[in-house]
Design goal:
The chain is 48% helix and 14% strand. The protein is α/β, with parallel strands linked by helices and 236 residues long. The strands form three sheets. It has a five-stranded parallel beta sheet, with helices on both faces. Strands 1-9 form a two-stranded antiparallel sheet. Strands 5-6 form a two-stranded antiparallel ribbon. Helix 4 links the parallel strand 7 and strand 8. Helix 4 crosses helix 6 and helix 7 crosses helix 9. The N terminus is likely disordered. This is Response regulator.
Length: 236
């Protein structure tokens, strides 16, 4: 079963939410079988009537705009349009007070650390047994921060606080700026970004200036290093 970790310096811990107040959950998962299994498990275990699902970050964001915020979110680390901490960072901007649980088969220590620093309420493995999954979610919704037993927290309180602040700055980027930053991290030049996003090169430059200002970076290489330090984008 997962173990809880706490960090008093973390500014991103979600609000305490009694389990009986969790009536509507949004699962963001692109694998149909995994998504359906999770939805069924939550309906049975918590007596939920409404479990919403989305197969991509964009679909989740649109659904939240149209239907309002859920009581809790379960978010896959790797989605078709967001890999790594990007999905978490973008959803935290949209629903800052809703507890978000990251779920993945990837239990890489650095990825878990990045997710927790970016404000995840917890990080759980897709291989968890049903009882362990339900117990972990219950603890998270009651205010605990839950991570896998194999996770070893990085022994650097100041560094954790710095990563949390950096994640907050990344969350200030607009969706278009996040797309441009992702392409920058892929090594694309302004002209290539202009072509890929069907926008003027001058517009790309304007967005890049805004990105650099928001994340406090002076050069493209520094922006890439900052994004990599919080595992914002993961390679496909």
């Amino acid at each position: 079963m997962d173990s809880a970790t706490s960090n008093a310096q973390d500014r991103n811990v979600a609000r305490h939410l009694p389990v009986d107040r969790v009536r509507e959950i949004l699962i963001v998962e692109d694998h149909p079988l995994m998504c359906d299994a999770l939805a069924l498990t939550l309906k049975i275990s918590f007596g939920l009537k409404n479990v919403r699902t989305a197969r991509s970050l964009a679909a989740a964001q649109e659904q939240i705009r149209d239907q309002g915020a859920p009581d809790a979110v379960i978010l896959d680390v790797n989605l078709p349009d967001a890999r790594g901490a990007e999905g978490l960072v973008m959803l935290r901007r949209q629903i800052p007070d809703v507890p978000i649980t990251m779920i993945s088969a990837d239990l890489d220590n650095a990825m878990i650390a990045a997710a927790m620093a970016a404000g995840a309420q917890g990080y759980i493995s897709k291989s968890l047994a049903r009882e362990a999954l339900v117990a972990s979610l219950r603890r998270m919704w009651e205010g605990e921060r839950v991570t896998p037993d194999s996770y070893v927290p990085e022994d650097a309180g100041d560094e954790d606080a710095a990563k949390a602040e950096l994640a907050r700055r990344f969350s200030s980027l607009t969706p278009q700026q996040m797309k441009i930053l992702r392409l920058i991290c892929q090594g694309k030049a302004n002209k290539e970004i202009s072509y890929e996003l069907s926008i003027a090169e001058a517009t790309v430059k304007t967005h890049i200036t805004a990105i650099m200002s928001k994340i406090n970076a002076r050069r493209r290489t520094q922006a890439v290093l900052l994004a990599n330090s919080v595992r914002l984008f993961e390679p496909a």
